[in-house]
Amino acid sequence: MKQIARVLAPLVIGMTLMIGLVPAAARAEGATDAQTQVKNAYLNQCELIKAANFAAFTATMTDDYVQINVDGKKATRAETVAALRMVVTQTGLHINDCGVTVDSSQRSGDDLTITVTLVQKGVIPRQGSAALLEDTTRERDVWTQTDGKWLQKSETILGELTKLNGDTVEQSGTFSH
């Protein structure tokens, strides 16, 4: 289960570039266009994982993408996607719902550094039943805008809480702002 938590949280929501401009009415109050577009990119990444479309999910990240977990361990884009694919295929994990809350962001040129809280809910089949998964992560990520599309450059996991059937199975890092 720890492997599921370590891979799932940052990836399920760490999301795609096929984002156009969002109409003003759809924007959260106070959110910038960049925040809104990147928030939608996280949600699109989730949809790609739901569909097990790992090729399209990979395309949402820069070639030099790096993931840094709570312990400081780094993983490349290829390692991150391979680990996610393994978890999804070996456990039968099915994500049902994803949520993204933007805690803060700062734009510098084509880059947006964004701190988010991501929640993924899903089901892991078991003999005769299923385990309900709820995974919450707090991350500070960097996205870059290239040719009008947002690509994820890095993902730093600040905190993670994983529950199965309502029971905490893993908690690490911090969720403080």
Identify the notable features of this structure and list them briefly:
4 helices; alpha+beta; 47% strand; Nuclear Transport Factor 2, Chain: A; 177 residues; 28% helix
According to DSSP, the number of beta strands is 7
| Gross morphology | globular
Q: Per CATH, what is the topology?
A: Nuclear Transport Factor 2, Chain: A
Q: Class, according to the CATH hierarchy?
A: Alpha Beta
Q: Pairing-aware structural class of the strands and helices?
A: alpha+beta
Number of helices: 4
Helical residues, percent: 25-40%
Please summarize the sheet with the most strands.
Answer: 7 strands, mixed
Overall number of domains: 1
> What oligomeric assembly is this protein in?
single chain
- Approximate strand percentage: over 45%
Run of helices and strands = HHHEEHEEEEE
Gap between N and C termini, in Å?
Answer: 27 Å
What would a concise description of this structure say?
The protein is of the alpha+beta class. The protein contains four helices and seven strands. The longest helix has 18 residues, at 33-50.
List strands and helices in order, with pairings:
Blueprint lengths: L1 H12 L19 H18 L3 H5 L2 E8 L5 E3 H15 L2 E15 L2 E16 L2 E18 L2 E16 L2 E7 L4
Parallel strand pairs: 1-6
Antiparallel strand pairs: 1-2, 3-4, 4-5, 5-6, 6-7
Helix pairs in contact: 1-4
Structural features, described:
- This protein has 177 residues and is an alpha+beta fold.
- It has 4 helices and 7 strands, in the order αααββαβββββ.
- Strands 1, 2, 3, 4, 5, 6 and 7 form a 7-stranded mixed β-sheet that branches.
- Helix 1 (2-13) crosses helix 4 (77-91).
- It is globular, with a radius of gyration of 15 Å.
